[in-house]
Amino acid sequence: MKQIDYFVVTHYDQDHGGNVARTAAKMPVPIRAFVDHGDVMSQSGEAQEVYASYRKALGDARRLIVKAGDRIPLAGVDVVVVASAGAVLKSPLSGGGAPNPLCSGEPARPSRGENPASIGLAFTFGRFRTIDLSDLPKAIERELMCPNNPVGTAGLFLVSHHAFNMSNLPLLVHALQPVAAVVNNGERHGGQAEAWQAVRQSPGLEDIWQMHLTPAAGERNNAPTRFIANLSEAGCRAHWIKVSARRDGSFRVTNTRNGFSKTYRRRG
Ligand SMILES: [Zn+2]
Fold first, then answer.
1. CA dist., res. 209 & res. 121, Å (int)
2. What spacing in Å lies between the alpha carbon of 15 and ligand 1's midpoint?
3. How far is the CA of 248 from the centre of ligand 1 (A)?
4. Which DSSP category does 187 fall into?
């Protein structure tokens, strides 16, 4: 690897933009461009601080402010911004655009802060698709997915917002019909029961893979340990979950802690 072409800073909360300067400094290769949603939208002191430190870390790199519908160039992969700065994708991706039958009930209350401004990305590689909506809350999930679903299906779902209950409406998760999901949760960050259940009850979902064990969620919600990369934050070795996708839509997920892996086929 000789450089990072695009480094996406989804939003300016501490657990997302908070370590950009340190990460960039530790990176053995240069970062050519940073991608973000624009100016900080939260008045909170923490977000303002994160934004200021990010602006400093930009250095000589190019800054790309993206809007919903924009693309990030990546050879062979179609990377589409489906949400940014509170706005959502209007023109559907290939295979998307049909009415979403799960759109019912009351709209969620809009939430403030940086989460609704998060950059959401859809990655399409042949017949494989995955979606990462960062920390988008329920109100924006509904705006994106109702009345029509512009994304279509996504075989792999990167669970939103560390599996906090503020995100992961069934009208999003179930409409995507994922075969597998990966949760970027912490030992004490995310992994809440309602969100976990919304994902687990998604029709056709085979497995949830986790970045960490979340003891507070109990046995009912945590996946079997072979699907979990880090079992304790004490002495954590920062194991990770690897995904390799093929053009035919199949993909293989590997737990780098124990080498356990499983291949998933595209449905339909
Ligand atoms: Zn977060």
1. 20
2. 5
3. 32
4. T
Residue 71 structure tokens: 């693309």
Condensed to tens digits (0 to 9), the pLDDT of residues 219-252 reads 889 999 999 999 998 888 999 999 999 999 999 9
Alpha-carbon span 132 to 153, nearest angstrom: 13
Model confidence pLDDT, tens digit, residues 92-122: 999 999 999 999 877 777 778 899 999 999 9
Residues 6+ apart with CB under 8 A from 114: 11, 12, 13, 40, 41, 42, 44, 47, 135
Residue 6 near residue 64 (C-beta atoms within 8 A): yes
CA atoms of 97 and 99, how far apart (whole Å): 7
Q: Which amino acid does the sequence have at 220?
A: R
Separation of CA 127 and ligand 1 centre (Å): 29
Task: State the distance from the centre of ligand 1 to the C-alpha of 161, rounded, in angstroms.
Answer: 5
Q: How far is the CA of 13 from the centre of ligand 1 (A)?
A: 7
267 CA distance to ligand 1 centroid (A)? 30
Instruction: Pick out the chain residues at pLDDT < 70.
Output: 268
Question: How far apart are the CA of 87 and the centre of ligand 1, in A?
Answer: 19
How much is the pLDDT for 112? 80
**DSSP H helix total and E strand total for the chain:** 7, 17
Q: What is the pLDDT of residue 60?
A: 82
CA distance 136 to 206: 24
**Cα of 92 from ligand 1 centre, angstroms:** 26
Distance CA 170, CA 206 (A): 16
- For ligand 1, the distance from its centroid to the CA atom of residue 218, given in whole angstroms, is 21
pTM score, two decimals?
0.96
